[in-house]
Design a protein that fits this description.
By secondary structure, this protein is mainly α. Helix content is about 90%, strand content about 0%.
């Protein structure tokens, strides 16, 4: 795979990761605003953090696959 194509794919994966982070933040904030008590607010924070970790893990896996295919 050409270097330019690999760099473009890597950039696309990074952009996708950014969108997933943004979505996690929005989901977390929405759940927090609807929380009826402290427990639900804490659960909303945990859900948002898990979504961010999942986004980072998915991006890392995809980038590793791109580098292995070279």
């Amino acid at each position: 795979m050409s270097r330019i194509k690999e760099d473009c794919l890597s950039f696309a994966v990074s952009v996708q990761q950014g969108f997933r982070y943004f979505k996690a933040i929005l989901v977390g904030q929405a759940k927090k605003m609807r929380a009826k008590n402290e427990k639900e607010a804490t659960e909303a924070d945990l859900i948002a953090e898990k979504m961010q970790v999942d986004a980072a893990d998915a991006a890392e896996r995809t980038k590793n696959q791109l580098h292995k295919s070279n």
